[in-house]
What we know:
The complex is a heterodimer. Chain A is α+β, with helices and mostly antiparallel strands. Chain A has a domain at 63-181: CATH 3.30.1330.60. Chain A has six helices and four strands, in the order H-H-H-E-H-E-H-E-H-E. Chain A has helices at 2-21, 56-62, 65-70, 88-103, 121-141, 166-172; strands at 77-78, 108-114, 149-155, 174-181. In chain A, strands 1-4-2-3 form a four-stranded mixed sheet. Chain A is elongated. Chain B is mainly beta. Chain B is built from three helices and 32 strands. In chain B, strands 3, 4, 5, 6, 7 and 8 form a six-stranded mixed sheet that branches. In chain B, helix 1 (52-71) crosses helix 3 (147-161). Chain B starts with 16 loop residues before the first strand and ends with a strand. The chains are: A alpha+beta, B mainly beta.
Amino acid sequence: MKKLIVLSVSFLLVFSFFASCRKKVEETPPPPPQVKEQPKVEKVEKPPAKEPELSEEEIFEQKTLEEINAEQPMEMIYFDFDKYFIREDAKSILRNNAQWLKKWDSIKILIEGHCDERGTEEYNLALGEKRAKSTRDYLISLGISPDRMSIISYGKSQPLDPGHNEIAWQKNRRAEFTIIEK
Amino acid sequence: MKKTIPVSAVFLALFLITNTLIPQQEVVMRIREGMPIIPVAIPEFLTQNNSPDQASAASTLREVIISDLEYSRVFKPLPEDYYQYIDPLNLEDINFKKWESIEAKLLLSGQVSENRDGSLIFEAKTYDVKSARFIKGKKYQSDPSLLRLVGHKISNEFMKIYGEPPIFTTKIVFVSNRNGNDELYMMDYDGYNQTRLTFNKTRDYMPAWSTDGKTIAYTAYNNQNAALYLFNPFEGTRTLVTDHGTSFGADFSFDGKKMAFCSTEDESNSEIYISDTNGKNIRRLTFNNAIDTAPSWSPNNREIAFTSDRLGSPQIYIMDAEGANIRRRSFGGNYHDAPAWAPTGDRIIYVSRVAAVFDLYVLNLRTDRIIKLTEGYSRNESPSWSPDGRHIVFSSNRTGTIHIYTIDYDGTNLRRLTSRGENKLPNWSRK
Lengths: 182, 431
């Protein structure tokens, strides 16, 4: 308590010293700007409706085929030049795809086989079909029913990348998955 | 526009005449080697009066005929400046000696006159100069909008005089994306009158003319399949052949009785099938796990050339039309496809891939000699023969965009026929 008194007295002394040094003329501060009182607007809102907890199944049920396909739930796989066997990197993708197909077991898919521009039209159409077929066969080996999968070949008529280099060609040698029924 | 045609061109034409009276088909071969190109005088066409309509019709008609006959590799229109050395043609009194003096072997005269209803009448007459003899004449009545067709018909008659198959009214069907989507189009052999045939939202693919030139077999992509259809563009009718699997690559036999095509309907693997030309009685010809594709009939209707990768890489094979007796016909490369049997029977054209370049090669089946037809660091593919076996239509991306070209059997006379969009998969009608 003593300390406090000493502190406040010394503070007062210092302050009064500075105050005495200031001009004696007191300046009236400008009046504070008049603030018009705004009527408070009360927002009338619907009481926050409780979002019904949709199950994953129900969300899935509500989506259209286009919406599901836009999400590309099944990743496409790529092939080697002139080849149609399933590459090692494609196998893990197909395992994921098979899992997804097992989870959504009402889904039916179309497997599209595509080729790059370095094959002839005629042979490519047959090769694209082979790529789609080996993709389907691999999914069958993972336990997916063949009834759920149909296949089609587009040959080289639908490139994903219009370029003329190895990067584009690799992108175009692919099997894509489209959901056609759920 | 002058095209140089080597006067000493060597022709090897083989004609197959099938005698329908004898059950066992007899093949008659007429071989002509070193056939000279026949010079034809085609002086300015005459008009009834000098009305601008008639004059312009006469000059267009003459241009069409000259262009046709220059393309023929059989006839050679005289150079324009030769005509200044002799008097103009007087049909009442033809001085054949004068025409012979400017090296004409044949003389083709044309006259344009007007009908009472305003339509034009065209008359063409052919004379043999040496024997000073009238050979043949024909009159055509037509609307001026069909002038080019009249010209092609006159040129056809000219070809028939020499027993040559008339090719100038044939059509080329092809796929183009010039209006956004891959649709079927057709055009005259010379690229004129490009007409759109299909109007779908989906992709149309690999058209092939039927033997009579009335129907087109093609593949239409629907949402989930690529079905083979028979389409009559003149009547707008369409019938389904098969919509199981992916079906494509039709080719009609020369006798107009059968159609060969590819389908994956049985084992999701492209195999070759044949059917009647109405698409009925489908029968499978090839049975294996390899790709079999691109069938092409032999002109005697007994054999089919096709592509197969049964030995690891795509190669050209020939089999009997029943599917037996399969033998390999391409060697020395690791990628051969799209065989097309020449209507003359003696040659097969195909595509060979070396690195990423496709070129057209012609295999002579009798001598086993191979001629490389195209050269260029591009993809030349989908060859199809003209009915006389002297020209080939194909697609090439040599300009950076895929367009349709024709080239002669010996690699000369390259012509580009299309200019808008991408244009591919041409097929030359047989009639």
